[in-house]
Design brief:
The protein has 246 residues and is an alpha/beta fold. Strand 4 (104-110), helix 3 (118-124) and strand 5 (141-145) form a beta-alpha-beta unit. The chain is built from 7 helices and 8 strands, in the order E-H-E-E-H-E-H-E-H-E-H-E-H-E-H. It is elongated. It has helices at 29-41, 89-100, 118-124, 152-162, 178-193, 214-217, 229-243; strands spanning 16-23, 47-55, 59-67, 104-110, 141-145, 166-170, 201-205, 221-223. The strands form 2 sheets. A 5-stranded parallel sheet has the order 5-4-6-7-8, with helices on both faces. The protein has a 3-stranded antiparallel sheet with strand order 1-3-2, covered by helices on one side. Helices cover 32% and strands 21% of the residues. The chain starts with 15 loop residues before the first strand and ends with a helix.
């Protein structure tokens, strides 16, 4: 593999990229000039506005296309690699039976003011996503989906009552880093409420999380955009095995 790569637009290695953003300016030539100025400061040169659309009277959405000279070094990219095997549904059920000798209990919720349940439902509900069944489909899992806008104290209490092995939290609302604040609050509450050996696995997911931030946020795992139910189930089997049956 090449040691460096460039963005690809019209021809290999031409460095062409496309950006989209909104400026608090009315639609018109001055607004387009401001969009080009912003693109230039971002290193896009030459740049051109290929699309603009007014959003009300004082805001405009822009799409800018142009060339950058930046290089990417794939060998220096740091990501959260999957460090556990991706199992089939049959293997997951068999592993839970062998390791726990009971059902794996999973409690899921959207916490704080977050009312976006699409993500947590895709992982937990039997209908799943992208052709994969959710955790309710796995006969060796018992799933408790608390839904949206669950307070952290309520989540802790349900986890205690259900004797949860894992707590899954979805966070879509990210304004003012709400997803980070909520996650830190949750992890602190669980650590206060449970002895270390009895604390459920804490797993969070959402499109704006950095998967490398798990230690900083005090959770066991972060899943980002595009995660499938089988990935989550495989992780839970792997992680629960590490801590042993409760």
């Amino acid at each position: 593999m090449s040691t460096v790569v460039r963005p690809y637009g019209d021809t290999t290695g031409d460095g062409m990229v496309q950006l989209s953003f909104t400026l608090p300016l009315p639609a018109g030539k001055r607004g387009e000039g401001a969009a080009l100025q912003l693109a230039g400061k971002m290193g896009v040169d030459p740049a051109m506005v290929v699309h603009s659309r007014a959003i009300g009277e004082q805001h405009t959405f822009y799409v800018v296309y142009g060339r950058v000279n930046h290089l990417v070094e794939p060998g220096k990219v740091v990501v959260a690699e999957r460090d556990y095997p991706l199992l089939s549904a049959k293997e997951i059920n068999a592993a839970i039976r062998a390791r726990l000798r009971r059902k794996l209990v999973v409690v899921g919720a959207c916490i704080g003011t977050d009312a976006h349940t699409v993500g947590i439902d895709a992982i937990l509900n039997v209908k799943g996503i992208a052709g994969e069944k959710g955790l309710e489909y796995y006969r060796e899992c018992r799933v408790v989906n608390l839904g949206a806008q669950v307070s952290v104290p309520d989540l802790v209490e349900h986890a205690r009552t259900e004797k949860a092995d894992a707590v899954l939290v979805s966070q879509v609302v990210t304004q003012r880093d709400a997803h980070l604040h909520n996650t830190r609050e949750m992890s602190a509450a669980f650590r206060e409420a449970f002895p270390a050996a009895r604390r459920p696995l804490l797993v969070v997911g959402g499109p704006r999380f950095d998967e490398l931030m798990a230690p900083e946020l005090g959770v066991d795992r972060i899943f980002g955009r595009g995660t499938t139910p089988r990935e989550v189930a495989s992780y839970l089997v792997h992680a629960v095995h590490a801590v042993g049956a409760r």
